Amino acid sequence: MGRSLNLKELTRETPPLGPGHRLCAGCTASAIVRLVLMAADRPVVVVNATGCLEVATTVYPYTAWNMPWMHNAFENAAATVSGIEAAYRVRMRRGELREPLYFVAFGGDGGTYDIGLQSLSGALERGHRFVYVCYDNEAYMNTGIQRSSSTPLGSWTTTTPVGSVTVGKSTRRKDLTAIISAHRIPYVAQCAISHHMDLMRKARKAFDATGPAFLNILSPCVPGWRIEPSDTVRVSQMAVDTCFWPLFECEEGKLRVTVQPKEKKPVQEYFQIQGRYRHLLRPEHEALVAKMQQEVDQDWQRLKEGRIL
Amino acid sequence: MQQETRTLTGNEAVALATKQLRPHVVAAYPITPQTGIIETFSEYVSNGEVDTELVLAESEHSAMSICVGAAAAGSRVATATSSQGLALMAEIVYIAAGMRLPMVMAVTNRALSGPLNIHCDHSDSMMVRDSGWIQIFCRDAQEAYDSILIATRLSEKQSVRLPAMVCYDGFFVSHNLTPVQILTDESVFSFVGPFKAGVDLLDTLHPATMGALALQNYYLEFKRAQAEAMRQALDWAPQIQEEFRLVSGRSYGMFQQYRLEDAQLVLIALGSVSRTAEVVVDRLRSAGWKVGILAPRFYRPFPRAELSSALVGKRAIAVLDRADSCGAFTGPLGLEVKSALFDHGVTVPVWNMIYGLGGRNITEQDIEGIFFQLLKIVQTGTAPPEDADYFGVREGPAEAGGSQKWVEVSTLRN
């Protein structure tokens, strides 16, 4: 159903997010937005949580958005889109609108894992028909790389420095995708920018879902991950190849791994291409790396067995 | 002018008025003493009496966020809250006004924590008085009902487009049953009219970016425009209230007055206390006292000029504040009145009192005592204290640093 997901053809259309915005060179957030929105075969109304994507695309009097777009605050994108979707439903019912629309909310991991989790949970439980996209760059990047509950164990941020007493973040990341799936919504998936067709197919399923849908998309960040602008897609590919960021979907409660790496690589290969993990390559942190490898292996095994938790 | 009298609580009257607005979206979270509004409205929705998307949010913060989204999406929106709920909303209360989104919110006034207290005072509304919302304070359930309708018209006026709060006293008004005159659904809807969006987010042919980032080069102009909208609200309110009078027969000003014209001693207060004071005024009037009441109805915009000219020639004024402004040593209404009088060159002694916090009762005798104190100020020519008094408070003995002014008031009324 709908138009085909042919990237070559879709990129000839007016881009939903136009050029000229102020995101960093190499930033994956803009590519995520374009891929998600190109997968929609109806007009889309976008809500944006406060964050990099929002501040970099709508500096008044300019906007990079070629579609209806709204920003309210940091922690309330899901509640805001709930209100818009409720207004849409009643206005359709009263005959004030005729055009079928999709609704999507974009938030970073700060606005989703942390400060906006309650708002998101409420919106999912109420069953509003919308897609929530978390572009997950694993820290508060907009305010300058502070840890979030998505920041992985051992990762450097400005609030989890590598010092003589503590070494990066001391706790595991929160498994948000599992938390969202516990809401028993029709569609939940993890995606990566390196696997764009997988991402677009999942976005299409999310738009077509009969209720709320959630996409957690890894979003490598040039300044925050201490990587080159030209390396963001390569780093994303390595996150998938090491199973550090596994790609799967949970459709009507049924879990399926969508991308199986040909050869599962050790996590060191993911760490060594990012400045934020550089310290982990030192011999004194071998035990920490081994622990992280073990966690990745356990998570991957569980997903392959069809269990999200 | 077909109307029906029903015996309703303030909350029921507000729920009924909200239904008659035919809102597209109502989003709310229950909190004492507002809960009755949402319960009553839920019954309307459940019985198909109104075609509204009722969104029962998981918090007031989300409720207000939903209202902002829905209002941006071209719909008439209503909500209600109290106290901690309004405090939790506060961030988005400012955004609703900053984005110039019309909506109406009933605020069932209740004290703010801490300590925790569920009873009436105005500290919740006062906390967001600078947010850019229109604020109307009501004396009873009838005014609450009428003000929901008036506030909606004013809020949606194209040159205003500011959200509006209808504030009324928790329990005193929200829970007491009183007779309320109800307009027909048709006459309400012809008064408020269908909702007309300014910018409609759901208009995909004319895509809008709403809630952009405005930095040093634009923020100030946005805020200036918002201040001008409040000025427009001040200008339009009288006309809209006059239109309401033609529909309902009930007449409202920017403030309500009771035997004020020739009064020499004046009590100024927001909310239900001024109804209690009317009984006292009648009693003192029959004893030959020239006393009267001024009850500000619009707190935002505050009718500074009109209020000042109504107070020219008065001998002494008591301003009762059901909220404090810690560190100003004067309550918020006291500050407002003193500032307006100063700017308009009206010299009258003003005695400011903080009273009734956390629902502490104030009686007819107490109010009589206040008028006696005003008389004493006039007779002795002594200036009232610069700082606000705390009416009826139990303070420690003077030697322990406390004050015993309350004793003086009690003595006077005996």
Descriptive keywords:
heterodimer, A: about 300 residues, alpha/beta, Rossmann fold, 8-stranded mixed sheet, 8 strands, globular, B: about 425 residues, 7-stranded mixed sheet, 6-stranded mixed sheet, 16 strands, about 40% helix, disordered C terminus
What can be said about this structure in brief?
The complex is a heterodimer of chains A (309) and B (414). Helix content of chain A is 36%, strand content 13%.
- Write out the CATH superfamily name of the largest domain in chain B: Thiamin diphosphate (ThDP)-binding fold, Pyr/PP domains
| Order of strands in the sheet with most strands of chain A | 2-1-3-4-6-5-7-8
- Structural domain count of chain B: 2
Task: Count the E strands of chain A.
Answer: 8
Query: Tally the helices of chain A: what do you get?
Result: 12
Note the gap between the termini of chain A.
33 Å
Oligomer: heterodimer
Tell me the Rg of chain A in angstroms. 19 Å
Main β-sheet of chain B: number of strands, strand sense, barrel status? 7 strands, mixed
CATH C-level name of the largest domain in chain B: Alpha Beta
Strand proportion of chain A: 5-15%
SSE order of chain B in H/E notation? EHEHEHEHEHEHEEHEHEEHEEHEHEHEH
CATH architecture designation of chain A: 3-Layer(aba) Sandwich
